[in-house]
Write a structure and sequence with these properties.
This protein has strands spanning about 10-15, 15-20, 25-40, 55-60. With about 70 residues, it is mostly beta strands. It has one domain (about 10-60). A 4-stranded antiparallel sheet has the order 1-2-3-4, with no helix packed on it. The radius of gyration is 13 Å and the shape is flat.
């Protein structure tokens, strides 16, 4: 949450998604859901932090690369 990143390669995907690059070579997709959907907490991609809830109005999809040390 204290890191800076470059937001690029924005693509709108019909009917309800957007894809983009953020934090290096990691591709992210945000999908808006038509209805509130049941979701198991702690199943978000690495680096995503949201309040503990069992329902979501959107999904975040990605596979971030581990930090290199």
């Amino acid at each position: 949450m204290y890191a800076t990143g470059v937001f690029s390669l924005i693509q709108l995907q019909a009917p309800n998604s957007i894809r983009f690059l953020f934090f290096g070579d990691t591709e992210w997709t945000v999908e808006l859901l038509n209805d509130e959907t049941f979701t198991v907490p702690f199943t978000e991609p690495r680096g995503v932090h949201r309040p503990f809830k069992f329902h979501r109005h959107f999904k975040i999809l990605s596979d971030p690369k581990p930090e290199s040390r």
